[in-house]
Design a protein that fits this description.
This protein is mainly α and 187 residues long. Helix content is 72%, strand content 0%. The protein folds into two domains: 2-143, MFS general substrate transporter like domains (Growth Hormone, Chain: A); 145-187, no CATH class. Its main location: membrane.
Length: 187
C-alpha cells in the first residue's frame, strides 16, 4: 500500500477504521444495533494493520540513526500514554456512576470524536522528502521492489528459525490479553 499511496496516505487510511468501530460499540450499547459494530470491526481490522505498519515505519525511518532509540522511546511512551489517558478519561466520566458493566454514552461520543479527528491529524505529517534531518540525509522510506516481491519475502520470514523460536513468546504475550479481554467482555 505504501508503494502506491505513500506513507502519509497509508497513515491516513490506517486511521479511518477506529471511529466506525467506536460508533458501532456505541450503537450496540445504546440501541442494540449489530450491523454497525460488525461493519466497524471489519473496517477497523483492515485499517488498523496499515496504521500499525505506518506508525512503526515513521518512527523508525524519520529520525537520524543516533536518535532512533530516543525516537522509539518517545513513540512507545506516547502510544502507551494514550491508553493511560483514555483510561483516566473513562474513569473520570464514570466514577460517579453506580451501574456496573457499562460506561456512559459520553465516553463513547468523546472517543468517537477523537478517533474521527485521526485522519485530519494524519494530514499534518510531513512527507519523507520534506523531512529535514540534522545530518542532511533524506529519509529513505520506499519500497523499491514490486509489492508482491515484498510480500513473498515477508512470508518467507515466518518460517525462519529465528521467527519460529520467538512464536512461543508472542503467543504468551497475546494469550493473556485474549483471556482477560474475553473474560471482561462477558455479560
Amino acid at each position: 500500500m505504501v508503494h502506491y499511496i505513500g506513507i502519509k496516505g497509508a497513515l491516513i487510511f490506517g486511521t479511518i477504521g477506529y471511529a466506525p468501530y467506536a460508533a458501532g460499540l456505541y450503537t450496540k450499547s445504546r440501541y442494540d444495533v449489530d450491523w454497525l459494530l460488525l461493519f466497524g470491526a471489519a473496517v477497523c481490522g483492515i485499517s488498523a494493520g496499515v496504521f500499525w505498519m505506518a506508525e512503526a515505519a515513521i518512527a523508525i525511518a524519520y529520525p537520524e540513526p543516533w536518535n532512533k532509540g530516543k525516537a522509539l522511546g518517545y513513540w512507545l511512551t506516547y502510544r502507551l500514554s494514550g491508553q493511560i489517558i483514555g483510561g483516566a478519561v473513562n474513569l473520570g466520566l464514570n466514577a460517579d456512576r453506580n451501574q456496573a458493566g457499562q460506561v456512559s454514552y459520553t465516553v463513547y461520543i468523546l472517543f468517537i470524536a477523537i478517533q474521527a479527528a485521526g485522519p485530519f491529524v494524519a494530514l499534518l505529517l510531513n512527507k519523507p522528502d520534506r523531512v529535514q534531518r540534522k545530518d542532511g540525509k533524506k529519509v529513505s522510506l520506499e519500497i523499491l521492489q514490486d509489492p508482491w516481491f515484498e510480500m513473498k519475502k515477508t512470508a518467507r520470514l515466518f518460517v525462519t528459525k529465528k521467527f519460529l523460536l520467538i512464536v512461543p513468546f508472542i503467543g504468551q504475550a497475546v494469550f493473556a490479553e485474549a483471556v482477560f479481554f474475553t473474560y471482561l467482555s462477558r455479560e
